[in-house]
Amino acid sequence: MEKTPLYPPTARKRVRAAQLALVLLVVSSYAFTYLLWSDSRVETLPINAATILAQCSALHLTPGPPNDFHARTQSDRFVPGTKPTLIRNASIWTGLDSGNEVVYGDVLIDKGLVKKVGSVNLAMLNAYPDVVVLDAAGAWVSPGIVDLHSHLGVGSSPSLNGARDSNSHAGLALPWLRSLDGLNTHDDAYQLSISGGVTTANVLPGSADAIGGQAFVIKLRPTAERSSSAMLLEPPFSLNGTYVDPFQRPRWRQMKHACGENPSRVYSGTRMDTQWAFRQAYNTARILKDKQDAYCGKALAGQWTGLGEFPEDLQWEALVDVLRGRVKVQNHCYEGVDIDGMIRLTNEFKFSIAAFYHAHEAYLVPDLIKKAYGHPPAVAIFATHARFKREASRGSEFAPRILADNGLDVVMKSDHPVLDSRHLIYEAQQAHYFGLAANLALASVTSTPARIMGQDHRIGRLIEGFDADIIVWDSHPLSLGATPTQVFIDGIAQLEKPYTSTKPKSAQKVPATPNFDKEIADAIKYEGLPPLEPETAKSDIVVFRNVGSIFLKNAATRGVSEVFTSAGADGVVVVEKGRIVCSGTQAACPTALSRSDALHLDLEGGSISPGLVSYGSPLGLTHITGEPSTSDGPVFDPLSILVPEIIDGTVIRAADGLLFATRDALLGYRNGVTSAVTAPSSYGFLSGLSTVFGTAAAHKLIDGAVIQKIAALHVALSLSSGISVSTQIATLRSLLLGEGEGDLAKQFADVVAGKIPLVVDVESADIIASVLVLKKEVEAATGKTIRITLTGATEAHLLAKEIGLAGVGVIVQQRPYPKTWQQKRILAGPPLTQSSAIAKFVANNVTVGIKVTDPSEVRNTRFDMAWAALESNGALGKAEALALVSTNLEKLLGVEDGSGDLVATKGGSGFEGKVVAIILPGHGFVDLV
Ligand SMILES: *[C@@H]1O[C@H](CO)[C@@H](O)[C@H](O)[C@H]1NC(C)=O
Ligand SMILES: *[C@@H]1O[C@H](CO)[C@@H](O)[C@H](O)[C@H]1NC(C)=O
Ligand SMILES: *[C@@H]1O[C@H](CO)[C@@H](O)[C@H](O)[C@H]1NC(C)=O
User: Fold this and answer.
1) Fewer CB within 10 Å, N or C, the chain?
2) Is any ligand 2 atom within 6 A of the Cβ of residue 242?
3) Where are the transmembrane segments (predicted)?
4) CA 283/CA 161 separation, integer angstroms
């Protein structure tokens, strides 16, 4: 058993005693003076002098836990009746030793606290007769996940007009607002995020304002009181206006700041306006602070005459507290230009920033960040969610590694619900995949955010005396798809009946990630925009060595089959002019290895498999989704607006709007996504005709750039479109029954004739049921069979059987989330339900594919696919998982002749692997990526 000392040093002492002595001394000397010189010449000592002096000396107290905090034997959040728990035989990542310590042993929790980490013997258990024992059987155990950037409760799910509580539009600088005032205790996301291991979150106001208000740290579990306030972790004492003991160290407060596009956009202003709003606000706070300090200077010097009341202002007290170093400033700030402005502001007004959020350019300006007043801010970022607006367009997946190399604190965050915080660990996993050391990756969602929010005296590490916020994992937390099997908050088990999916043994180890040294250097060299175009192999012949497995499309089944597995032998694939000419064991390709005219690539046991397909995002129609001038733009929806006569009745074709060489398409290609199906962007009922294109093509006129001009006809049926669902269904019915005109009639006739599929973007199970009824109705009337594919389809699992019987296919997100009412009834998958939605569709013979919604997710398709298999409890093998993002999508979207591209991956399929080459039979060469 390996063990190192547990307690961090606690050296805060003597403060209170010293202050008490000072106040007593000052007050008693006045009293003495007063007695001696009780005539008109002396200062008049106000009746509340002692209170004022205490208040004045309290201004200099720094926030933190009370001195005796670590002597606590029970948590202030302990729920009486909670039984002690012993987690036996665990691999415990404690967070100590810079995140390198692992203790193999037990964890004993009681009274909401971790009582023991290490070996718990029977004698010790005598003191806990009612202990509940959880045998971890060697599983990984970690502290609960801490999300530094969340809008849980203020940006609730499902999102409703009645619950938009994260942004005030009352001004640019509103330090007096409090996110707590909007904290909804009924957000559907709490339970989901807990099931992903999140135990604590910093709930921030939004970024519409320069100073959006005060943030509050919550624990996610339900409370007996059911109140918003009961969720708070160490709220400031002054929160409810009751008397505050001036000698007690204050607790940390949190405040949201934002620069850049968001505040500018909301007020049609500019960065200059936002920066002035900051300076004006800080100047107001500084003047008030100076008045307070002058007042206290006089009071402490005994100059009471005419002193009056202590200068206070309820609106500005929180910002004054920032200047007093008692607030963690959490600063949404993306670009170098904005970071520069904030650094100047900190030095002008002398305050510190706890962390820069989003900070997509932080890795380009580490030395600038180090110039911040006080200390360098931490950098809280997404792993691969980028390029959605100008501010994010230089974001790099290598930022966590580069920032860490520069000695800056790295935090991975969700910005929930921007990313579903249930999967915050996935951000840490990706950061690790792209080069962040394992200890720092785990710290980035536990101990580091706990420290940045000022709560590292009780959460973020798994050590004796800390809050019993603990996760038991089904695999190593940095391995893809790692899922909690139990989560404790304040010692209370949060999963009543956890479901698990069996994981491979290899998932118990830290993934051995690829080397990205060159990519990391290029990210910096090219200021976040490294060239992404593939390089064509110079040799006509490429020999792949050490091939672990080969998967190919199966023409007969229109699926994917494993055609070779090396079973430890040295698998070989010889490619000549883009075509496999020989594959299998070395014996099958005897001359391959000796060919000196060939390029030899060692796949280190990796695979060769079909090129992946992406669907669901506007990939190929936009460079930066938030910038209209970089995008094809939305179509006119005939059901919501009056379409200009000149184009009325024409069905729009995505092929006409394709934009090539977008960074998201090229990143997709480099990660094995060789083609994509994209429909015209629409906010309403009618989208138009989708197209199939190659993700690496430089422009449309290159051979193979447009693989299939028209794939399917796309419509959307939605509860939130502003037009009744019944009207939308009626429209669809009349179009399917041939009542349309012109081009519209022709395209729907093709659907009815079975020539192209009808792809219906629909989330609600009720609308899906109506679609199934409509399909029957139309088929009865026309005598033809229509091909229908449902996409989005978050609630479709409720009708999996009926959808299967109707011969309808579905395309869903790998990770469902109840963002809107019509997506409310998700099938969450383990640990909340045994089956994932995808596994349920497979069990019901429904052809299922995986979609993404944002172009920046395209590059992660291979992770989505592997994850779907990992959480299917064996229902999906590798070949079936590959089909989800290749042949199934092609079938469902009307792709006649999918690409024959093959992807060569070095190393394993999840976080171990890296795509190194794309074999292109259609082009007759191999691309190196
Ligand atoms: C811990 O669990 C592992 C895996 O199940 C098992 O091999 C080992 O014997 C267990 N150790 C103890 C001390 O129970
Ligand atoms: C106000 O806060 C104090 C300190 O946290 C607490 O002791 C007190 O019970 C609270 N009062 C109310 C009315 O919530
Ligand atoms: C799925 O198909 C298989 C094979 O055709 C059949 O045995 C099974 O009953 C079907 N399952 C459902 C739920 O329809």
Assistant:
1) N
2) yes
3) 20-37
4) 36
